[in-house]
Design a protein that fits this description.
The chain is mainly beta. The protein has a single domain, classed as Rieske [2Fe-2S] iron-sulphur domain (Rieske Iron-sulfur Protein, 3-layer Sandwich). The protein has no helices and ten strands. The protein starts with a strand and ends with a strand. 24% of the residues are buried. The structure holds FE2/S2 (inorganic) cluster.
């Protein structure tokens, strides 16, 4: 686990992109729960930092595939799974296992 950002860096219902070990990761804050997903859609590689977050899922801005924030699965397109990363909070620190 590595510290990647502060919770206060990620606004509620907002996102922040961080680079860790050569990977771009999108942090998402949903009412204080932080999720971490790869900043690359598994469909055709679109960046996910412009994605819409709603009802526990994140929707790719390009073709609208919706991925679970918890495990990256896509109900409509099960062949596509967004990479997700385990997250821990320690005080105001966000730690991600990459
Ligand atoms: S590139 Fe993300 S849904 Fe097509």
């Amino acid at each position: 686990m590595v510290v990647v950002a502060k919770i206060s860096d990620v606004p509620n219902f907002g996102k922040k992109v961080v680079s860790v070990s050569g990977k771009e990761i999108v942090l998402v804050n949903v009412k204080g729960t932080i999720y971490a997903v790869e900043n690359e859609c598994p469909h055709q590689g679109s960046p996910m930092n412009a994605a819409v977050v709603k009802d526990g899922s994140i929707s790719c801005p390009r073709h609208g595939y919706r991925f679970s924030l918890t495990d990256g699965t896509c109900a409509e397109h099960p062949e596509c799974t967004l990479v997700t990363f385990p997250v821990q909070l320690n005080g105001d620190d966000i730690l991600v296992d990459v």
